[in-house]
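Can't paste images in this forum, so I'm doing it all in text. The chain is below; anyone willing to post the predicted structure tokens underneath?
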Amino acid sequence: MNRYLDSKKTIATINKLKQRINERFTDSGLYKVAVELEDIAKETDEKLKWIAKPNYLLRITLAFIIGLILLVLLYSISIMNISLKIISLAELIQVIEAVLNDIILISAAIFFLLSLEQRIKRTRALAALDELRALAHVIDMHQLTKDPSRAFNYRRTKSSPKETLTSYELTRYLDYCSEMLSLTSKVAALFAQHFNDALVLSTVNDLENLTTGLSRKIWQKLMIIHRLQDDVVLSETLTPEKDGQNPS
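Text version of the structure:
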């Protein structure tokens, strides 16, 4: 049983959703967002391969720099000429303090160099996650003006958005938005799956919470549509009886 997300299958699912959107809402803004999501997913697959691949050139360079630092440190210690017979206790403390400070600074520099590759990969992963976060907000903007009541009888104003979707088309439109939000979070989860970094994991969790919250708003609209549809059906069923006619 496969317990991990497959980037290829995720891209294929996004491609299928893109085709479904285009078949029902040809060349719509939502279709263009789906195209963008597919492009980001493909770029994510390439970025994950780059993250998983060790940067040997950088590692060799860092190893050379660290070795050079250690050699300088050893040489500095070797040329120190300290005689315990003539040095005072205060001077000895100053020497020890200076040596400890140098060791701490050198250790910090070595740690910085050793974590450089991790930080470079983290920066690229966070930049990709920022793109996914922005795309999630774009998807939310597309469903923002899709008011369920507009698919039924309602009083328009001059500033009311133009609504050409039927109740069924509106349901499909909102479903597509919800699916895209879910797939956006799945693309983000690929980074958490392939790159074990605390900040990246935290960012992925935040993005998943964002898409879940946005999807919840969409499902609330879908529930309203279903309720309004039931009300219309009930009203049409009761109308003949109200006029004293036999509904059969």
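Residues 198-242 form the longest helix (45 residues). The chain has two domains: 7-53+129-237, 56-114.
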